[in-house]
Amino acid sequence: MLMPHPATLRKLVEEYEALVARRAETGAAKPDQRTQDLEYTLCVSTGTRDMRSALDKARRHLAAAQEPGPVVRMPLRSATATATPSPTTAIAAPLADVAEPRDAGEAVA
Predict the structure, then answer these.
(1) CB 12 within 8 Å of CB 42
(2) Which residues of the chain have pLDDT under 70?
(3) Smallest Cα–Cα separation from 12: which of 29, 37, 33?
(4) What's the per-residue H, E or C state across 7-69?
(5) Which of 14, 65, 70, 90 has fewest C-beta within 10 Å?
(6) Apex CA 66: angle with CA 60 and CA 68, to 5°?
(7) Considering Cα of 46, then 50, then 51, then 56, what sign does the dihedral take?
C-alpha cells in the first residue's frame, strides 16, 4: 500500500491533533469542516476506516521512518572510465550518411 511521505503525514497528524485539542478547549459539539477533511485524508492515507486506527498506523509509520536504515555505499565511477556508447550515439552514427534536406525549388536527380 502506498503511504504518504513522512513529512506530509506528520503535518496531517499534527494539524488534526491541534484541531481536536482546540475543539476540546472550546467545547464545540461537532468537528468543523477542516477536521472532517483531515479525518478523511488520514483514513485514506493509512488505508483504515476509523480515526483511532488511522492515527495508530500513522504514528507507527512515522516512528519507523525515524529509525535509521542501513547505509549502502555505492562505488564511485571514475571520470576516466571507458563509457559504453549510449543508445543515442548508436542511433546517430548511421544517420551521418543521410543527405541534407533540399530546398523546395531544387530538382530531384
Answers:
(1) yes
(2) 69-72, 74, 78-109
(3) 37
(4) HHHHHHHHHHHHHHHHHHHHCCCCCCHHHHHHHHHHHHHHCCCCHHHHHHHHHHHHHHHHCCC
(5) 70
(6) 125
(7) negative
Rounded distance, CA 19 to CA 76, Å? 49
Round to whole Å and give the CA distance between 11 and 38. 10
65 burial type by CB count under 10 A (0-12 exposed, 13-18 middle, 19+ buried): middle
Distance CA 72, CA 94 (A): 41
pTM of the model: 0.60
